[in-house]
Design brief:
The protein is α+β, with helices and mostly antiparallel strands. The protein is built from four helices and three strands; from the N terminus they run βββαααα. It is 48% helix and 19% strand.
């Protein structure tokens, strides 16, 4: 089993503890942030799986790329990629809604 732990800057004073483990194609991750503690997929785990180590404050930031490489071929790869794609679509849709609302509000005022 492979195991990597990171300390990640978040909204609390103390950094969050984010732990990844891999055995074969089985990938596990946990985070002690509020979302992670309630069983939700948090942005801290997702960022590391996407290779983003900007919030990592522990001395092993270089291991982010290694852990991100674990995603390919894992039991979660397809679903994580779908989540990322859907989040991007959501951003685009939210922007379109915002723009449309502005147009309607402006039209209603005249």
């Amino acid at each position: 089993m492979e195991y990597v732990e990171f300390r990640v800057k978040g909204s609390e004073t103390e950094p969050y503890r984010v732990v990844f483990s891999r055995m074969g194609s089985s990938l596990k991750a946990r985070c002690d942030c509020k979302a992670g503690k309630t069983g939700q997929l948090c942005k801290h785990r997702l960022a590391i799986l996407n290779g983003d180590g900007n919030a990592v404050v522990s001395e092993n930031q270089a291991q982010v790329a290694e852990v991100a490489s674990w995603l390919a071929g894992s039991n979660l790869a397809e679903t994580i990629f779908e989540v990322v794609a859907l989040e991007e679509q959501k951003k685009l849709i939210d922007e379109k809604i915002k723009t449309a609302k502005k147009i309607v509000a402006k039209a209603l005022m005249h």
